[in-house]
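Exercise 7.
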Amino acid sequence: MSDMLSIEQREQAWVFTLNRPEKMNALAPELVLALTEGIQAAHQQKIPLMIFKGNGKNFCAGFDFSDLDTASEGDLLQRIIQIEIMLDLLATSPSMTIALCHGRNFGAGVDIIAACKHRIAAAGTSFRFPGIKFGLILGTRRFQNIVGTQNALEILSSTRTFDAQEAQKIAFMQEIREPEQWPSLIEQAEQNNAILSDVTRRNLYKVLYCSAESDQNLAALVRSASAPGLKDRIRAYLKPN
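Solution. The predicted structure, written as tokens, is:
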């Protein structure tokens, strides 16, 4: 397991902590792989509850652009696909999944939050989907399913930042709770999760979180990311105004 991710393995819950605070927990390939393998391991052991949070000043800054100059467009496309595979694994999980988020969060980092069934933010948390500026359609349908088409269209097309209060208003967040309250929230989540049997929970999630859209999401992502000039579009987005 990578040093970029720590997993606290409790009896009824695994707590995943993104641990790359010097890079705002940006999704380097090693971190994406560690998340993918950690989620798969939790599924294999039938862990009923997975919780995701970030170390440092935020949950996750999204895609890591630090090697943009040396990576090929094929490399970037492969990395983006791996992120979508990880997101789909999380979104279709038979476990209860909870995101505990804080600070400024962007792109694929917000997509991780959207892939969780229950989402809690600290006051002052903010969210932004900038990827559409360089033509990337990643996690769009999952966000739409939570907040509705009109809210998703307005937020995604404007690429604007929205805060925790607005997120709660449009149901992207269920609660606003400060980090010092999170340990008790985790304990309460473990108790609540025990109300249903594992079989009942899995059947319920299979109905509520249909995996039929998985291939459509991946296809939309590949079409958007594989259009010629991906690196140039990213550079234009990153260029200071």
